[in-house]
Specification:
globular, 13% strand, Rossmann fold, alpha/beta, 5 strands, 5-stranded parallel beta sheet, 7 helices, 45% helix
Length: 205
């Protein structure tokens, strides 16, 4: 397992159109705290995917797990989405077996639903974002409240607005069909960081 970088955060979120706004909000919110977002979108090539996911998580100081997508995927065959809880399980198991100081957070959009969808996490308080952009930004701020000086809500929203404005052009240049593609993700992370460094004094130093 690689040594974790204190400025990196693993983002575990469903890759679907209904979550594009939340996806950008996570990128903007984490950048507002000076964190470099990593995600499985980076993992291209033929190496064993599970091993690479494990290494990617281990290289990060933090991980953010969005467990709000519990509905069945309507595309046949109708199935639930298991990747998000599975990747959270990797983190929890790793931490129990070899404590490393990695800090993980669970996000949901509906209060009390986690008690039903994943009852093994009873006793863990999820951050409830209410399925809104401002909710995601607010709960990231709550989750990272102990991480030094906090960006203001308006600063985080400005970074999000900047990123939203840049996203369409980034997608167009890449010839991508969605925001959930490797090249697009990489450029979005860079755009979020540049905006955060411009909007939040001292972040670039």
């Amino acid at each position: 397992m690689p040594r974790a970088r204190r400025d990196s955060a693993f983002l575990n979120i469903p890759y679907d159109r209904q979550r594009q706004g939340s996806f950008l909000a996570y990128l903007a919110g984490l950048a507002s705290f000076g964190l470099n977002t990593r995600a499985t979108l980076e993992l291209t090539g033929g190496e064993r995917r599970l091993d690479r996911i494990y290494e990617l998580i281990g290289s990060c100081r933090y991980s953010f797990h969005d467990l709000s997508r519990v509905q069945l995927d309507r595309r046949p065959p109708a199935t639930p989405r298991f990747n998000m809880p599975f990747e959270l399980g990797l983190v929890v198991g790793w931490q129990k077996a070899a404590p490393s100081g990695h800090i993980w957070f669970v996000f949901e959009s509906v209060p009390h639903r986690l008690q039903k969808s994943l009852s093994d996490l009873n006793g863990t308080d999820p951050f409830i974002d209410s399925g809104t952009i401002d909710g995601v930004l607010r709960e990231i701020r709550n989750a990272l409240a102990r991480r030094g000086e906090l960006p203001t809500a308006s600063q985080m929203r400005q970074v999000f607005d900047d990123l939203g404005s840049a996203a369409s052009e980034i997608k167009r240049r890449a010839g991508a069909r969605s925001l959930f593609e490797a090249r697009v993700f990489t450029e979005l992370v860079v755009a979020a960081r540049r905006s955060a460094e411009r909007v939040i004094p001292g972040l670039a130093h």
